[in-house]
Structures are given as structure tokens and as C-alpha cells.
Write a structure and sequence with these properties.
This protein is an alpha/beta fold. It is built from 11 helices and 6 strands. It is elongated.
């Protein structure tokens, strides 16, 4: 796995590189600006990019913009975006074009090494990894919607784990239930939200997040 890191905080940037190299991963380049990041993507053709949301010069959405540009230049590039705190608009904006090979984590998650590496490998493998805190806030913002209001507590739990990027088996293991029970809950969720179910986990996450974003903007 070839990795490029884009982070303007030198300490965190080098810390991430050391952590990943210690795990036997190949960090081919690090960058402190969006321009350096895109140049590294062109030069090294990485499999995964780890990108900070807020980068120079304005420290607003440069990381999101650069991540999109990188995926445009290198289709199939997996991108794991890091943010200091929950930025709901950026999260849903990033995922609007499809959630395959995309992740959005809070920087505090990096300190939980096992969770961070699990998310990184999931994204690199073609899946999705959304920080539980991001999912929780999106769900909280959409609670007034009639569709979400019809969900049972268990269905809410399943929806939350779906949005994090977990597949049916992983959800079953987390909730200590059978795969069949999870499948039944998912069918009920999609029926109540008016969303067509799909076997592709990344597509269903995209559908859920788009729905939540739509209800949150009403």
C-alpha cells in the first residue's frame, strides 16, 4: 500500500508517517500544502491519500478540494480525510459523488491506533469509513424527519453502523445478533426512509448520508 500524507502540521504529519511505517506501510511522500500534495500524487501514484480538511492558505476547505482533484487525476485513489472536529457540511460534500474508497475521521481517532488502521485498510480495500461522531451528529440533525422518527431504536443503531461503513456481518458482530436480524432491520430502514436497498455497502452509505444531508438542510 503506497501512501501520501497531506497535513500542514509538521508534527502530526511526521508522526503519522512514523506510525504507518512502523506498521510496515509504504509512505512514499508527505506534503504540507495542497500544491505539494497534488504534485506528490502525480509523481508517486499512491494507492491511498491521507488528507487534512483545513490546509493553507485559508485553512477552510482546501483539503476537500485537493482530495477531489487528486481523485480526478488518479481514478480509484482511496482518500482518508482527517478533521480536528466534526464538519458536517464537508463530510456530506465529500461523499456526495459516491462513497467508494473514502473515509472521514476525526484526528483524535489517529491516537486510537487500531481503529485508525482498521479504517485505513477498509478505505484502501474499496470500502467506506465514517467517524462515529460524524454519523451521530448527522442522525441527531435529522431526527425531526418523519422517516427517521419511524425507526425503532435497533433500526437507528443499525443505520448508524451502516453509515460508518460496516457491512452486515460486522454490524451483526457489533450488536451480538444474527446476520438475518441485521438484514431484516436494513430492509425495514430502507422501506421507512423510502430508499432502495442495495448489496453494495458504499452505495447504501452514500444514500443514507445524502438523505440525512437533505433532511438536515430543510
Amino acid at each position: 500500500m503506497r501512501i501520501v500524507i497531506a497535513e500542514d502540521d509538521a508534527l502530526l504529519r511526521e508522526g503519522l508517517a512514523l506510525l504507518l511505517r512502523a506498521e510496515g506501510l509504504d509512505v512514499v511522500a508527505t506534503a504540507g500544502t495542497p500544491a505539494e500534495f497534488l504534485a506528490a500524487v502525480d509523481a508517486h501514484e499512491p494507492d491511498v491519500a491521507i488528507v487534512d480538511v483545513r490546509m493553507p492558505p485559508t485553512h477552510t476547505d482546501e483539503g476537500i478540494v485537493a482530495a477531489r482533484a487528486a481523485r480526478g487525476r488518479r481514478p480509484g485513489l482511496a482518500v482518508l480525510v482527517l478533521s480536528a472536529y466534526v464538519e458536517q457540511t464537508f463530510a456530506t460534500e465529500l461523499l456526495a459523488g459516491g462513497a467508494e474508497r473514502l473515509g472521514y475521521l476525526l484526528k483524535e481517532r489517529v491516537g486510537r491506533v487500531e481503529e485508525f488502521l482498521t479504517a485505513l485498510h477498509r478505505v484502501a480495500g474499496g470500502g467506506t469509513a465514517i467517524d462515529p461522531e460524524v454519523v451521530g451528529q448527522l442522525l441527531a440533525r435529522g431526527r425531526s424527519d418523519a422517516g427517521l422518527g419511524r425507526l425503532t431504536p435497533r433500526e437507528r443503531e443499525v443505520l448508524s453502523l451502516m453509515a460508518e461503513g460496516l457491512g452486515n456481518t460486522a454490524i451483526a458482530e457489533r450488536l451480538f445478533v444474527t446476520d438475518g436480524a441485521v438484514h431484516k432491520n436494513i430492509r425495514a430502514i430502507f422501506a421507512k426512509l423510502g430508499l432502495a436497498p442495495t448489496d453494495r455497502a458504499d452505495r447504501r452509505v452514500t444514500a443514507v448520508l445524502r438523505y440525512l444531508d437533505t433532511t438536515a438542510r430543510r
